[in-house]
Amino acid sequence: MAEYRSLLEELAQNITAEDLEQLKSACREDIPSGEGDAIATGHHWFAFLERHSKLDRANLSYIEHIFEISRRPDLLTKVVQYRTQVLKISEEDEVDTKLTRIPSAKKYK
């Protein structure tokens, strides 16, 4: 669990206010009306995703997808490294996960 929290902390530190607006826009369909304004930092965004079951220690596919469509390969690479090194989940193990974008993440390694 400590590695997961460290990952979220590192990701949050690399999300600027401008980035946050882009990330919120990328997942606007999953943010109920009126709740978007309460998400003011990367930490708030991750907490929101956890509360709404979009993110947890063993399921990072949602943020992988959001980082990819938001053109943040640096953050995507950090998540993929966590998944493959800490969780020991490889590309082959996640074939059935529809949101995971591993092939495109490989080019950023």
Automatic annotation (TrEMBL):
UniProt xrefs under CDD domains: DED_PEA15
SUPFAM superfamilies noted in UniProt: DEATH domain
Domain DED residues, every copy: 3-81
A GO term from the CC aspect: cytoplasm
Compartments where located: Cytoplasm
Main location, first listed in the record: cytoplasm
Assigned keywords, A-Z: Apoptosis, Cytoplasm, Phosphoprotein, Sugar transport, Transport
InterPro entries: DEATH-like_dom_sf, DED_dom, PEA15_DED
One GO-annotated biological process of the protein: apoptotic process
Source species, domain of life: Eukaryota
UniProt protein name: Astrocytic phosphoprotein PEA-15
